[in-house]
Amino acid sequence: MRISILGGGGFLGRKVASRLAADGTLGGTPVTSLTLFDLAAPPAPSAPFPVATLGGDIAALPAAAIPEGTDVVFHLAAVVSAAAEADYDLGRRVNLHGTDAVIDACRRLARPPRVVFTSSVASFSGGQGALLDDDARQVPANSYGTQKAAAEMLLADASRRGFMDAVSLRLPTIIVRPGRPNKAASSFFSAIVREPLLGLETELPVPDAFAVWVASPRRATEWLLHAAAMDTAPMGLDRSLTPPGLSVTVGEILTALEQVKPGAAALVRRVADPAIAAIVGGWPPGFRPVRAPALGFARHEPLVDVVRAFAADDLDATRRERGLG
Amino acid sequence: MRISILGGGGFLGRKVASRLAADGTLGGTPVTSLTLFDLAAPPAPSAPFPVATLGGDIAALPAAAIPEGTDVVFHLAAVVSAAAEADYDLGRRVNLHGTDAVIDACRRLARPPRVVFTSSVASFSGGQGALLDDDARQVPANSYGTQKAAAEMLLADASRRGFMDAVSLRLPTIIVRPGRPNKAASSFFSAIVREPLLGLETELPVPDAFAVWVASPRRATEWLLHAAAMDTAPMGLDRSLTPPGLSVTVGEILTALEQVKPGAAALVRRVADPAIAAIVGGWPPGFRPVRAPALGFARHEPLVDVVRAFAADDLDATRRERGLG
């Protein structure tokens, strides 16, 4: 099985690549080659199969990124929410025209590949009161969500036409992200766990009762691998799925943090930030997914396991990366 | 008030241009200039204001098509259903990247213009059993509908960002179209009225009980003019509207034809065409629009008036155009 990961240098791209390298298989079939594509050529994991890496612009996708014979494409390349809002042309180029380029690359192959695309909860709006069913309309409140929702439609049409066989997963907010706090409006959802576990103070810009739809990196990676190997025949025209995330409050995240490291939540300072609250306040905090679980997407593990998994999987690397000993 | 019509040489574009020329005003404000853009420069109607015409590719839209100071843009340019299905690249270029070009042209203006966009019932699926509410999800079953639905999203986002002030109207199947039968799957809905009124035989490829969501050219033109002048403040993020068309059966269309010209329906021969039935069979035949009527979009006139209006407005021109005396 030949696999390409577009956005292979990103957080989830590296998680998927590591899992493939560790397993050596996808859906029970041996992996025979892996191609990693990102803006700059990503580092290759040590793997029992050949790994090619290359860098470039996804809107001018080099043919080598999706070579002839490719069976599965993970299309994870994106300009994220805050960046797409700050730079309209860049977001459109990467998130929308990059998807056109992926479609064109797949059209050129002799056999249509499975394409697994990461769409986002940010393609929905409705705010704290919203609890959305699988057939809810996407009315995005930001350019990133707009470009993701439009890309979902283009990929569904490309599947109908036989250019590819796409599955779009509308991923929740991923917690806990490693690394440093950044300017993404959702950054604090990870920071309120990561920073206290590192012994550092951090700011919480919304009330403790604020609710959010989340998934762990482990669960998101499992979902992406399942989407790559599942039977898509029951999906029909509709190639988009809302996987079963967790609807949690910030207070519940802090309670889970306390369970894993008592006293850590004292490092979280309440500092209201109306600008951030306005952005994240538009996202729906709850979904009622029926279709994805019926198609085999695993239910989410409890919140405390999410915190424990971050401590096990990513805390040491984050500490080293940030020179914290 | 300065107005541009993109797709100004098409059927609805010419209807809108003629109405502006006849009225001299839009929403009570005098029209001061009109620019008509299409693949080839469209003919200019005789009008009490200056009319500029130019031709070109909408995906490489010349700046003169939406000059500085433009107040209203009618974005009607499209590659229609059958053509977008036959040529994926052409449909994407005109219907999707053409819309990007319109957004970019509007961004360059000092003041964001009103943009009235024609989306389509073909952006929905569900078939003969579907009766859709305003918040129904678009799950298109063809590339044209996909490109229209994606363009709606891009225009809503461009409005949120302040590049423009867009209203997207999901127009029903328009009957009665003048001219000749063509290869569009929906061509027969007009032909079963137009051809018998011309004294010509025509074929009906679906059963008499087949239902379809329609609007007359007069009503569609009124809606477009209303969308250009209405208050958009109550629309919020959602810039798409399903105007109140008519849900009718083919049998009801033939009954209306008989009321206007007794005996004419005898010229309609039943010749089943499974290929055409499969395409039009995917479109939903009924909607329950609440939002558009609340925003002032006029209810549809009765079907018999649609047939009478065609006979009054377009029959003579069609007869001349086709050399039928």
TrEMBL record, chains A, B:
Superkingdom of this protein's organism: Bacteria
InterPro entries registered for this protein in UniProt: Epimerase_deHydtase (IPR001509), NAD(P)-bd_dom_sf (IPR036291)
Keyword terms: Carbohydrate metabolism, NADP
Record-linked Pfam families: Epimerase
All residue ranges annotated as the NAD-dependent epimerase/dehydratase domain in the record: 4-200
The keyword NADP is assigned to this record: yes
Family annotation (Gene3D superfamilies): NAD(P)-binding Rossmann-like Domain, UDP-galactose 4-epimerase, domain 1
Xref: PANTHER family: ADP-L-GLYCERO-D-MANNO-HEPTOSE-6-EPIMERASE (PTHR43103:SF3), NUCLEOSIDE-DIPHOSPHATE-SUGAR EPIMERASE (PTHR43103)
Name the record gives this protein: NAD-dependent epimerase/dehydratase family protein
Native organism: Limobrevibacterium gyesilva
Lineage: Bacteria, Pseudomonadati, Pseudomonadota, Alphaproteobacteria, Acetobacterales
